[in-house]
Amino acid sequence: QSSRLFHPEDTVINLAHTIIGGGHFSLSAGPCSVESAEHVRKMAAVAKAGGATLLRGGAFKPRTSPYSFQGLEEDGLKFLRAAADEQGMDMITEVMDEMHVDMVNEYTDVFQIGARNMQNFSLLKAVGKMRKPVLLKRGMSGTIDDLMNAAEYIAAGGNTQIMLCERGIRTFDNKYTRNTFDVGAVSVLHELTHFPVIVDPSHAMGHTDLVTPMAVAGTAAGADGVVVEIHDDPAHAFSDGAQALKPDQFMEMAKRVQAVEALVAGWRE
Ligand code: PEP
Ligand code: MN
């Protein structure tokens, strides 16, 4: 079901405020973690001002250490929902565990499956039973075929509203970047599958200064969307502060991405 061979037409994801795929490009932004009702409201206003239509934020956080901030859970979902509604945006948030799918479903418009869960097959089956779009992130050591098979797990349950996300793969040079951004995956996935392809330069690069150039590169490669993390006070962010764009940096990134997207749209015709 994921293959272009059997389904030549692009899949288009239609949300209340966002259309992704089949020539429709969209910007998603928000904090790594939902930190408080007030903070996420503020970040939603920034995201919206830069032209984002999808508000991201983690309420369940897959942290490397069990002693790091784990997320506000259901309160976080409520705060993110309220912030998205206030700005007239759609909401995307990560679901980490099969047992939380119903709870997350009560609030979100799009489920995110994180890189660490790309091959959590029971979780993939659980979102495959839902009838809401899923953003499936490529595992840090996942091949393109692994990603395609993971998507197939979701599609096999009857949910074909899938977006694939390149967020960087495990690097041997983590002195300079958190991961290696596989921009080639955008083109390969567009050949192999009809699902929209989103790039996440924040997690791919891990450093604020490197996010904008790779957002531009991913857009130039024909990505159907870009998702980035933003924060007004990165030094005190609950998670991923080192890669967050400050509001003015986000505005500049959005401007550049939109300029490149206008060019790409011309080439598509
Ligand atoms: C995130 O989106 O905050 C996240 C944890 O991403 P990934 O699963 O790609 O590491
Ligand atoms: Mn993050």
Task: Explain this structure.
It is a single chain. This protein has 269 residues and is α/β, with parallel strands linked by helices. It has one domain: Aldolase class I (TIM Barrel, Alpha-Beta Barrel). It is built from 9 helices and 10 strands. The protein has an 8-stranded parallel barrel with strand order 3-4-5-6-7-8-9-10, surrounded by 7 helices. It has a two-stranded antiparallel sheet with strand order 1-2. The chain is globular, with a radius of gyration of 17 Å. The mean pLDDT is 98. Residues 32, 58, 62, 114-116, 137, 167, 203 line the site of phosphoenolpyruvate. GO terms for molecular function: aldehyde-lyase activity; transferase activity.
- CATH level-four homologous superfamily name: Aldolase class I
Q: Which structural class matches the secondary elements?
A: alpha/beta
Quote the average pLDDT. 98
Distance between the termini: 26 Å
The total count of strands amounts to: 10
Helix-strand sequence: EEEHEHEHEHEHEHEHHEH
CATH fold title: TIM Barrel
The portion of residues forming beta strands comes to 5-15%
CATH architecture: Alpha-Beta Barrel
Rg over alpha carbons: 17 Å
Mass-distribution shape: globular
Tell me about the biggest sheet?
A: 8 strands, parallel, barrel
Total of DSSP H or I helical runs spanning 4+ residues: 9
CATH uppermost class: Alpha Beta
Low-confidence parts: none
What small-molecule ligands were found? Answer: phosphoenolpyruvate, manganese (II) ion
| Widest β-sheet, arrangement of strands | 3-4-5-6-7-8-9-10
Helix content: 25-40%
Number of domains: 1
Protein name: 3-deoxy-7-phosphoheptulonate synthase
Domain DAHP synthetase I/KDSA: 17-261
Keywords: Transferase
GO molecular function, one term: transferase activity
